[in-house]
Automatic annotation (TrEMBL):
Keywords: Hydrolase. The keyword Hydrolase applies. The keyword Hydrolase applies. The lineage of its organism: Bacteria, Pseudomonadati, Pseudomonadota, Alphaproteobacteria, Rhodobacterales. Gene3D superfamilies: Hotdog Thioesterase. This is Hotdog fold thioesterase. It comes from the Bacteria. InterPro entries: HotDog_dom_sf (IPR029069), PAAI_dom (IPR003736), Thioestr_dom (IPR006683). Coiled coil: none annotated.
Length: 147
């Protein structure tokens, strides 16, 4: 399936609909099959001990799958998270940005499922793994016409 939005269009759309956090998340790379996103780690993303907080990592995984769905479905898709599974594998580096490597496992008419590996920038070892499921609004519904 071809992309409905390219990297720049997706970045602009995320900035429009999420102005409160658009500086936290950056679309690094986008293909028909995958997206790479960056969490620009700042003080608000850290927890005691100098490591990236779990909620910040979850947010990166969540926005990565959401962005991949939007890139494939386009602006009309108001996907909502319905399920998630998150495995913390090792301590992330507090002084490094987080990188998410995401791919869609399924993109159907009503459900999307994505798999995400999270890394500390500069490391090849994943710090977390997430699987996210999204409900997609029916075509023609008010929710599907968001944006």
């Amino acid at each position: 399936m071809a992309l409905a939005m390219n990297r720049d269009e997706l970045s602009q759309y995320l900035k429009e609909v999420f102005p409160q956090v658009h500086k936290d998340f950056v679309v690094e790379d986008l293909t028909e099959d995958s997206i790479t996103m960056r969490l620009v780690v700042q003080d608000q993303h850290l927890r005691p001990g100098g490591t990236v907080s779990g909620p910040s990592m979850f947010g990166l995984a969540d926005v990565s799958v959401y962005a991949m769905v939007l890139a494939r479905k386009g602006r009309q898709s108001l996907a909502v998270t319905t399920n998630s599974s998150f495995d913390f594998l090792r301590k992330p580096e507090g002084g490094a940005d987080m990188i998410a490597a995401c791919r869609l496992l399924k993109l159907g008419k009503t459900l999307a499922v994505g798999d995400v590996l999270l890394y500390s920038e500069g490391s090849d070892l994943p710090v977390a793994r997430a699987t996210m499921t999204y409900s997609l609004p029916p075509a023609g519904s008010a929710a599907a016409n968001f944006g």
